[in-house]
Amino acid sequence: MKSGTLILVRHAKSSWKHEVADHDRPLNRRGRENAPMMAGRLRNWLREAGIAEPRLVSSTARRAYDTACCFAEAFGIPVSDIEKTPQLYEAGEQDILQVLAKQPGDVPTLALFGHNPTFTDVIVRLANVPLDNLPTCGFAVLQFKRPDWQAVTWGAARLLHMEFPRDHRNTPVVGS
After folding, report:
1. Which among 5, 2, 1 has a CA at the least distance from the CA of 103?
2. What is the DSSP letter of 26?
């Protein structure tokens, strides 16, 4: 039986300098640097673990979508293949389960790009792990016994891996 892998990626650091609605805030300099670096780290980790490339599903917020675009580029996935869903913007925990339930059953690996505090709370509830905060552009890789996105329940996942940008500030990404 194949397992299902869920990756939760918090959007990269965004800018508050622009006079735009929250939904339209762009990435700042640090966000534009961290997103490609973390995308490469995730790509390399998944390859080493033998986990399939993910289907990408993003919040419609500019900062989340721009982050997803960096990850798409790292994986060689056309940005047009990123599924944009408004439900991930200002999502609650139950919204995440609803987004998962809408995913095709034949997708073994799924990456969601969204926001806190919900992503932190979902990681804690799905994998029963202590986590105070998923930082910007941090990601968590969770594994389920099977890729049945409609049947995901709290406590059903196992945390496989987690990385934060602050842990790699001066580390080059190998295999880019």
Report:
1. 5
2. P
Angle formed at CA 65 by CA 95 and CA 19, multiple of 5 degrees: 100
Q: Do residues 89 and 61 lie in contact, with contact meaning Cβ atoms separated by under 8 Å?
A: yes
pLDDT in tens, 61-114: 999 999 999 999 999 999 999 999 999 999 999 999 999 999 998 899 999 999
Closest C-alpha among 27, 84, 19, 20 to residue 56: 84
Tokens (6 digits) for 122 = 């979902």
Q: Residue 162's beta-bridge partner residues? A: 140
Token output for 28: 């700042």
For 121, counting Cβ atoms within 10 Å of its Cβ (0-12 exposed, 13-18 middle, 19+ buried), the class is middle
What is the pTM for the complete model shown? 0.93
* String of DSSP letters for 35-98: HHHHHHHHHHHHHHHTPPPPEEEEESSHHHHHHHHHHHHHHT--GGGPEEEGGGTT--HHHHHH
Classify residue 35 by burial, with Cβ atoms within 10 Å: 0-12, 13-18, 19+.
buried
